[in-house]
Design goal:
Number of strands: 6
Largest sheet: 3 strands, mixed
CATH topology of the domain at 2-68 and 103-112: hypothetical protein PF0899 fold
Helix content: 25-40%
Bound molecules: zinc ion
Strand order of the largest sheet: 2-1-6
Shape: elongated
Mean pLDDT: 95
Structural class: alpha+beta
Order of helices and strands: HHEHEEEEE
Length: 114
């Protein structure tokens, strides 16, 4: 399952950024996930719960912000929100677009309990 490896990655990345003592104090891990990142939200939360159990991060929970898709048209220059699966400019129907948001899979913040 894709979400399982993503959940494990999150755990590893978080561990690289905090000290061993801090790992136990992690309360919230804030993520930004784009609509195009291919992550099923409920599935990720489920997998994260599974991988954090018995680890030093068992107190941590995920706080996910979903990022919708926006793109800029290279033809008319307009920036527009796109529906999932639509890859042309809504204004002029040109397919030559640059994706601005929607691909994110980022850890934004690690919040510790004090
Ligand atoms: Zn356009």
């Amino acid at each position: 399952m894709h979400e399982m490896s993503v959940a494990q990655n999150i755990l590893e990345i978080v561990r690289e950024h905090v000290s061993a003592e801090e790992e136990y104090k992690i309360k919230t891990i804030r993520l930004k996930i784009g609509e195009l990142a291919g992550i099923v939200p409920d599935s990720l939360l489920f997998c994260f719960d599974a991988v954090k159990n018995g680890s030093s991060l068992h107190n941590a929970s995920l706080d996910v912000e979903y990022v919708s898709i926006t793109a800029q048209c290279k033809h008319c220059g307009k920036t527009s929100p796109l529906d999932y699966g639509v890859f042309f400019c809504p204004a002029c129907s040109n397919a030559d677009i640059t994706l601005l948001t929607g691909n994110e899979l980022n850890i934004v913040e690690i919040e510790l309990d004090d």
